[in-house]
Write a structure and sequence with these properties.
Elements: E1 3-11, E2 21-29, E3 35-42, H1 53-59, H2 63-67, H3 72-83, E4 88-92, H4 95-109, E5 124-127, H5 128-138, E6 147-148, E7 151-152, H6 156-162, H7 174-189, H8 192-199, H9 204-212, E8 218-220, E9 223-225, E10 227-231, E11 242-250, E12 258-262, E13 283-285, E14 292-295, H10 298-301, H11 306-321, H12 323-335, H13 350-353, H14 358-369, H15 375-381, H16 385-398, H17 405-419, H18 438-451, H19 457-472
Parallel strand pairs: 1-4, 4-5
Antiparallel strand pairs: 1-2, 2-3, 6-7, 8-9, 10-11, 10-14, 11-12, 12-13
Helix pairs in contact: 6-7, 15-16, 18-19
Length: 473
Amino acid sequence: MKTYLFYDTETSGLNHAFDQILTFACIRTDLELNEIDRQTITIRLRKDIVPSPKAFLTHGLTYNELELGINEYEAAQKIHRIVNTPGTISLGYNSLGFDDEFLRFLFYRNLLDPYVHQYGNGCSRMDVLPITVIFKVFYPSCLKWPQVEGKPSLRLELISRENNFVTSGRAHEALNDVEALIELSKVLFQQKDIWKYCLDFFNKQRDEVRINSIKKDFSVQNKRFRVCLMVSASFGPKVNYLTPVIYLGQSMPYQNQSLWLRLDSDDILGLNADLDLNDTFVTRKRPADELIVLPALERFWNKMPGSSQQSANANMEKICRHREKFFEFIEYHRMYKYPFVPGLDPDAALYQDGFFSSQEKKQSDLFHKAPDFRKQEILNKLKSPRIKILAGRILDRNFEENAGQTRKTQYHLYLNRLRSSLKEDLIIGYKNDIKFNCNQGLQELKELEHGLLNPNQDQTRMLNWLKDYIKKL
């Protein structure tokens, strides 16, 4: 049976690879949005996580609440089972851009398949935020839309408040946000034709078929291209969440990525600034992701501001005048490969190291099936270097009492790197970013204390706890 799994997470920070999911809340419904069941999973804060003060001021989770939770390894297995229940369509609000990335790295570092919930057992995923944007642009009368400082806002908590959605908790509490999300979905669901039309944007085959069926009606040196519209919350209300784009083709190293050039850019192809090709930018879309592509029909095109329309027309003329540069641009980006990141931390190596092999999956299963007190013994028998490292970290973080002295020493050396200010101790992520450390945490605290002129009692209590916690780390 197909079901929707509406879910939300609260996290220790914003880094998909390094930060930690702290609460996972979900409500399962049938395809008519009738509730079947609900649950919330609370996860203890790991010792190797420096909490982001900004994140904790937003969601308001306290140390005492988190201490009542389960360890991350147990939580990862529970969540993995939930999202992989046969027929599950997982969906959230900006879930494809945020929550699903967190789930992927949660599963990866806990030796669980990070992708199977996207396609296995009749499962799939979608996102209500892009659907909400479609309604905002093309059927705005369906909701009351909140304004912040005179500008439209798509924040779920504000939409919920503006439309008097009934929920049971506080904003940014995971289960409360799931309830608000279902209330929003029920409003959108009333327009069943539009809802059904939007669902196909999250079906990989249908999304690709739709894009491939759009006519190629723009010619450059006898080669024809598709000019389309792309819809995304990330484009913002100034352009009515729409941007004109031209389809450049598929990436060669990453066959699941299509490449798109925005036509409303002030400096298309980097011509004005005489940029090197490696300083230019394209939009990368994967089938059924959060970027929605529409044909450039007049009724859609006219939803864009006049300035965007004018820029698109001027830039298409510019492309025709600089066609050699245009084809060089296409060739460069189609062949582009992400740079190898030296010293990449194992937690963040999912994209660089790729899928688990069948042998690695078998070794992971051995580790999972072993009772807790035997996991160290199984660890010693693992052959894959990657699985051995990740399994060792599972022991470090969740079963310290069962880890040998060597493992405990290694873990404390790892923790010392979070306290260090030395460049060589920074923990490197897949974007060449770094894991949030104690120095960054204390700096963020200082900025918040200066920014909050009149903090309330809860905020003061939270800031004091965070300062004490980070200093003790």
